[in-house]
Amino acid sequence: MKRILSAPDIDFAGIRHQLGVDEEYGDDALAEARAAVDRLAGAREDHTGVPFVTIDPPTSKDLDQAVHITSDGDGFVVDYAIADVAALVIPEGALDQESRRRGSTVYFPDGSVPLHPRELSEGAGSLLPEQVRPCVLWTIRVGRDGSVTDVAVRRSRIRSVARLDYAGVTADAAAGRLHPSIAALPAFGELRHEVALDRGAVELDLPDQQVSLTDAGWRLHLEPHTPAEMWNSQVSLLAGTCAGTIMADAGIGLLRTLPPAEDDAVDGLRAAARALGVAWPEDQPVGRFLAGLPGGLPSTLALQSAAGGLMRGANYLALDGSDAARAIPDDKKRHAAIAGHYAHVTAPLRRLGDRFATEVCLALTAGDTVPDWVMRALPTLPKILRSADTLGATADRAGIDLAEAVILGGRVGERFDAVVMSAATERKSAQIFIADPPVIARCEGDLRAGDRIVVELTDADEVTRTVGFRPAGYNSLATLR
C-alpha cells in the first residue's frame, strides 16, 4: 500500500503539467467512451437480485468492485463483482490505445487523472448504486480454515443496492448494525488476514496523511486506516491470489511478481525500529511486526515507509502459454509479499493490466481459448505497466515534496528532533524522519541509520519543491512513539 497524502488546499497543477498528465484523451477515444455499450450483453448471467454493495472512500466515483458475502456454516461464500471494462472498450480501438498509452490512473494529493475518461470510469463502467451494470463475477468459497475451496468466474450483470464507505462500515460493525450483505465481512477479513500472516505475507498499511489550512497555519496529521479497509482489502487480495494461481498453473496470463526481501532491507528496518524505540522480538516475522504497529502514530508512518524497501524488484510477468512459459521456475512467478501467486484483476477502471488478466481468467476457467486481442497485448503490458508505475511514483514523490515545502515554509532555521532512516549513498542524501510534523526528508552529512539527532531546517522552497536539513548536533531524545 502506498503512502497517501490528501492536500486539497494546495495546487498541484504545476506537477501535472510538468509530468504531462492531463485529461486530454483525444476526440476518437472520448467519443468511444461516451458511446460505450455492453457489447457482450448476451453472454451474461443475471445476478441483479443479489444485494451487492460497494465500499470505497466517500469521494470515489470510479467504483470497480461490489461485494456480497455470506457465512454458510462451512466457511464463507464471497461474490465479488468487478466492473467489466473489456465489454465497454473496443479491443484495439482508439480508447483501448489511449488507455495503453496511460497505463493507470495517476493520483495527486488534490485529485486524480483517470485512466479512462470520466464518462466511462465514473459513468457507464462504474458500479454505481441502483444501476444495472455489466461485471465479471468471482464466486469464491473459503473454508473455515481460510483456505480456498472453489473458484468460479463468469460474466454477469448486477445492481448495487448501497454505496458504503470505510468509516461507516467500521462504525456499523462496532454497533452491530452492518448491512446484511456484508454482515460476515469482519469475520472473513480477520480470518484471511491471519491466514496471510501465517504463510509469511507482508502487508504495508501506511496511515494516510491529511494536510489542511487552519487559522493557525498549515496542519499535517495522520489518519490510520479503519478495520473496514483491512477487511475489504482481504476480498481484493483473495481474488488476486486466485487469479494469480489460475494463470500461473496454466502458464498464460499476467502476474505481479516480487522477489524475497534482501537481508539489508530487513536489517535496515530493524535498525529503524530500534531507533524509534519500537520493540520487535527477534523471532517475530516481518509481516507480524508490521501488522502489529498501532495506526496513527508518527513512528508507524516512518516504519511502514521504511518497509517499502522490502518491496524492491516488483515487476510484471507475461506468460504466453508456451512450453517455455510453463517451464519458468515457480519462484520467479511468485509475489513474496503475498507469499504466493498474485495478479491484478480487481481495479480495471484504474489499472490497464486488470482488464487483460481478467479475460485470461475468464477463458481458462471456461475451458475457452484466450482471445487473440489479449494474446497480442500480453507481451507488451509489462513495459507499459512499469512505465505507469514509475510515473505514479514520481507523481507521489513530487506531490509529497510540494506539500512538505508548503507546510515547513517560513520555518527555515528551526531545529527538530529526528531519526536517521537511511544513510547517504552515491545517488541520494541520507533520509531522516521528524515526528512533528511527520516528515521524511533528505539531510546533509555522513549520517548513520538509526541515529537520533537534532537537525536544522535549511530549505523549504515551494517553487523547487525541496526541503532540506543539516545536523545541528546530537542529543538524547525521548521516544518518538
UniProtKB/TrEMBL annotation:
GO terms for molecular function: 3'-5'-RNA exonuclease activity; RNA binding. Signal peptide: none annotated. GO terms for cellular component: P-body. Residues 44-367 form the RNB domain. One of its GO terms (biological process) is mRNA catabolic process. It comes from the Bacteria. This is RNB domain-containing ribonuclease. It comes from Gordonia jinghuaiqii.
